[in-house]
Structure formats: structure tokens, C-alpha cells
Amino acid sequence: MNRPLRALAGLAVAGLSVWTALRLEVVLDVSTFMLGERADEGLELSRSLTAGPASRTLTLLVEHPERAVPLARRFEEALREQPGLAEATESLQGGPPSGFEEAMWKLYERRSLAFVAPSSEGVTAATSTAALALALDDALERLAGPSSAFVARLLPTDPLLVLPRLMESMRAEGGGLQVSGGRFVTEDGTGAVLFLRTRASAFSGSQQAELLETISSTFAALPDRDRARLSMAGLHRFSASVERSIKADIARVTTLSVVSLLLLFGVLFRSFRVLGVTALVIHSGFVSGLAACLLLYGRVHGLTLAFGASLIGVAIDYALHFFGHHALSTPPVNGDRLLRQLFPGLTLGAATTVLGLVALGASGLPGLREVGVFAAVGITAALGATAAFVPPALGARPATGGALRLARALDKLRRKIEGRRALWSLPLAALVVGVVGAPRLEWQDDLRSMMRIDPELVAEEERVRDRVSPFERQRLILSTGVDMESALRVDEGVRAVLADGVRGGLLGRFRSVSALLPSAQTQRSVVAALRADTAWVDRLEALALERGFRPTAFAPLRDRLEAEPPSPLDWEGLAASPLGELVSTFRVDVGGQVGLVTFLGDVKDPAELQERLLTVGGARWFDQGEMLTAASGNYLRRVAWGLALGGLGVLLLVFLRYRSVSRSLRAAGPAFLAVVATLGTLGWVGWPIGLVGLTALLMVFSMGVDYGVFLTEARGDEAAAPLLGVCVAWLSTWAGFGLLALSVHPALRSIGLVAAVGITAAALLAPAGLLLAGSSVSRRAD
Fold this sequence. Notes:
Structural class: alpha+beta
Radius of gyration: 34 Å
Distance between the termini: 24 Å
């Protein structure tokens, strides 16, 4: 490769570095990583919910024994003054929306008859003598209270007080809230609540971390906040915490890795040039893979970075292979000449890795396709960077130091044990460990195990939820239909089942939109039932006379019953009103259908509720924890098959290169044995493995194939150089990725554990194949 091309490659890497730094956006939503074109309805719903208004809502609870409401009002004003907050938030509400009562009047007053009962069958009970008497007594009590003017205006056409009941149910979004002084307050009055809804997903960790810092600092700057406390609830906090813990892990492990690599390269090569050019190769692969993901997807998943960075680490072997050969060259070999000699083997190693990634991506998970894109592009770029940057950096004289002494020691050991039957103990031991340990392997099929959740955040979340909105977030009911009208009909069926469940003690409470918006069919049928038999109005007037009402007090009600009823209230009318913000959390779009969510609280018998819901067509019980566990088990099997198919493809590719069964087995066989030994070791010591760990096995397999290919490519008595390369690659991988086993984050720790075990097995098994064959098979037939 000539100088202009190498200069162009350097400029390309620099440009990609700047571009990715400016465009980088990391997401951490597990459902986004798992959800694909063939995803089941549960994951589709999970993604809809995590992108919906409910998941983007952050609950802020301001607590003070006496001054919660004024403090919350000042807090809201201070937040609105923060620069940039308006662009980051979709809404900020500390009380019912402006124009709440007027909007309720416009929407419901003229339609009050349609809301007298939840169904036409319920009209009989709603207009019974007992129910009418209770309504009139309630009206008299309200007429004596502060809302007397409003009730007096409403009563002639709405003696059953439909509108006040609807207003009271709408005043607070959560079941544990009241309204005082136009503010949302807890039942005991010591807490005032603000609901902040972000524009960005709650899983955009970096953005949410900035927002959370702004919220905390704004509250801390409030005057007279002694004895006041701010608590929060929302996915935003968990997202920011997970991203922060991952960054802390990476920073700590990176520091240890850099120190370890500096010591390793200092002892072996005594050259910062070697370290620098190796880092440049890895960096080239990393930014290239990152740029590919940003171009295709517009963002990159946090797990992709973890997987991709580990797989790109395979590329360090290419540069180390160069340096190992150069360190032992006598006389010194020109860099470009060495490139021509080694490049076929390096290309085969890269091609086998890319092929495995393609098979892994075919598992159907978009997250793994993203990993495949990242690593395939990155490894290809790292191979190109090796060809571009390593040969000129070799220098006229080979690096000396510990590398030369290590190579001599390895070569001496090779000559001593080469061809001995005792070497068969290594592959046999790998098989025994795999056969005995693999059946004991514990498969971790809970996707939530990928993330480390701060227990303090969980405790605060539960405390705020209990005070503000005592509804579950993991379990809910989804009513679906081809359009809103059909979804509302299903939701009405769900409401009837749950109402019976509350009366039967199966759950404590529930919240759905059907009370505020029955289907158009139900609204019409209720009005029709009221108009079909107006004897109930006669009884109402008789009861009213007994209570001192004028005889003609309810004449407007008779006029309304005789007039043409107004059109039913629909979702569009409700959503366009000031009430739209309060009901938006109920709606989700799933697979082209309209979905309506019912929130549950204090569920005591979920199995019985699920059984009863089977009678409601279009209703589905949704438990996110169970769904993620089932999906993880399904995807775990897909990934396992993908890895198996990838392994067969790699074996075929290696065979096409060597046209020899024995040489192909020497090149690829150790990689398979390393995977078997890794699974067996994890099972033996009781370390569970999940989707992350299983995918990390691809790194082990890729390194094993690279090691086998490097050794198989050796000519004649040249085994010392590839043995040195394998040994140094093993040590550097330990320093670079084995240290991830020290991480507190489960996903990173799993990668580190698998890497630590797997690379050790690969580093032992790959040379064993060559040494068992003896020097007579080390010469490649061209």
C-alpha cells in the first residue's frame, strides 16, 4: 500500500472519529434490542408502552408537613424558567389542565344522558327509586356547599349528577391524589405532585441524566425549603443510573486495561510505537463499526457497544501477529513484504469472524443484527487499518525485549513437547469439561438480569407510586381493536369484568378510559333506554317534591329526553380538548391496531382475573416480567442455532482455503473445543449464562479460529512467531476484556467471564493441535 492511500486511510479514520463523536446517541431499552420484524405481540406492546406517554412521564413529589402546595407551585415556576427545559419537555403539570371545568362542561353537559350508566342494561339500576333518592340527597348536600352555583346550574338537566362525578374522576391522574388549591396533592395533604413528560424516550440515558440534574439543582435552589423533600418516580432515573454505572464500569476497567497493556507492551516490545499503532487499529475498527450503526439506525444500543467493542478486540490479534513475526525476523523483514506474507491468513481469520456474525444476525433479533453490522464492519476496517498502519510502523529493526525471550521460551517448549501423545490430554480435557459441565449450565432467561438496578431507586420509586398512583406498572390489560370504536367496546367488557373483580376481592382498584369515553354504540343505547320508558322521571319528580324542589324543577330534563340527542363523544373530540393530556396515557398503537390500556392496583388473584378476561374477546393480560422471560428463552434458542450454523459456515470456509480435512480441523477445531470447554466450565462452577454471555461466545470462537489459522499458516520451522502472537494476544485480551469480569454491571461482567475462560481455552488448544501434528504438517501445500 502506497503512502497516499495510507494518508487517505488516516484521514478517513480521523473524519469518522469526529463524525461519530458529534452524532453519537446511545439507547438502553432492552425491548428495542430484542424487538424485530418477527417479534411477538408482547414485545411489540412492550415497545409501544416504553415509547408512549406513560413511560415518558416523570413524577415529582414535593413533601412538606405544612407548605407542600406553595413549594410545589414555586418549584414549577422555577422549572419553567430553566433554559432548554421547554425544548426537552412535552408537558409539565402540577394541577388539572387550564380550562378543565369549562372543557368538561362543553364535552359532557349536553351528553350527560349518555353517561348515566355504563351500559343499557345498567339503566334500570341507575334509575331505580333508591338510586334516584341518593342522587337527590347528594344534590341537596352539594347545594349547601361551595359548589352550589355550579350544581344549581346543572341540576335541571342532570339530576343524577353525571357531570360532577366525571369531573371528580378526572381531576387526578393517579388514584392516590386529590386536588387542593388547583394543585395535585396526596391524600394526607403533605405532598404536592408535578407530572413532567419528556419529548425524548425515558431510555435516552444521557439526556435524562441532564434533565434529572436540572430538576434536582432547581429544587435545591428554592428558598425556604427547610424540612422539604423531593422524590421522583419514572423510568428516566433507572435509565440514567444504568448508563452511569456502565460508564463507571468501563472507565474503571479501561484504566486497569490501559495500565496492564502498557506494562505488557513495555515488557514485551519496549516500544510505545507498537502500543500506539495497535491502539490505532482497534480505534479504526471501533469508529467504523459505530459509524455504520449510526448511518443505518441513527443511534446505537448500549449492549451493541459492549458486544461490538469486545468483538472488535479480536482485531488486536492482527497487529500483534505482525509484531510477533517482525520481532523474530532475522534479518529484518520489510513491512510490506511481511504484509504480503501474512495477509492471506489474516484475511481468512477476519472472514470467518464476519461469517459467524452474519449467522448470528440471522437469528431474527434486531439487536444482534446491529451487533453484526457493528462488528463485521469494524473487523473489516481493522483488517484494512492493519494493512495501512502497521507495516510503516515496524521500523528498520525488530522490537526486542521480553518478546524475544518469550518467543525463545515458547519455541524451546514446542520442540520439547512437539508430537507427544500427552498433548492429547488438552483436547480430551476440554471435551470432558464440556460433557460433564454443560448439563449443569444454568440458562438465565430473564432479560432484566442484563441490567443492574439500584435498590435505592427501586425503594424510592415504590414509595412515590404508593403515595401518588397506586397502580402496577408491570401488569396491565390491553384492549385492542381495528379502530377506536371497537377498542372501546372491548375496554367496556374489561371494565365490567374488573368491576366484578373489585367486588369479589380479586383486586383493589383499576383505572380505564371507558368511564370517560364509552363506545358510541353504548352512548346511543343508554340514551335510547332512558328515552324508551320515562316513568323514572315521574318517580324522580315525586321524590324531588318530597325534598322541597319545585314541581317544574326538572322540566328541562323532559325537554332533553324528547329532543334529538347530540352526537356521541369520540376520542378525537376528547383528545383535542384540554382533557387530552390526561387521557393520552391510556392509548397505545400495537401492530396497526388501536390499543387501550387498563391500569391495575392491588392485584390479589391474577390467575382468576386472567381466567375471567378470557370471556372478553380482544382483551389481553400483559405481564412485562413474564413476557421478557418467555421472549428471552425463545431468543436464546435462536441465538444458539445461529451460532451453530455460523460454526458450520466457518468450517466450510476454512476447508475451502486449505482443501484438507486435517488442516481445516487444526485451524477451526480448537475454536469449537474452546466453546465447549467454556460452556462446561461455566456449568461446573455455577455461573449462569444468558443472551449476553451466549453472544460473547462468538468472540471466543472468533479468537480460537484466528489462533488456529495463524498457526496453520506457519511455514516450516516458523511456528515460534505465531506461537508468540497467540500468547501475546491471549495476554492482551485478558488485559482488555477479561477484566470486564470485575464489572458490577451484569452484562459487562458476563462478557468478561466468558472471555476470561474462553480465551484461555483457545490459547491452549490452538497450539496443541499444531504440536500434536508435529513439524511435518506445518508446511502449507501451496
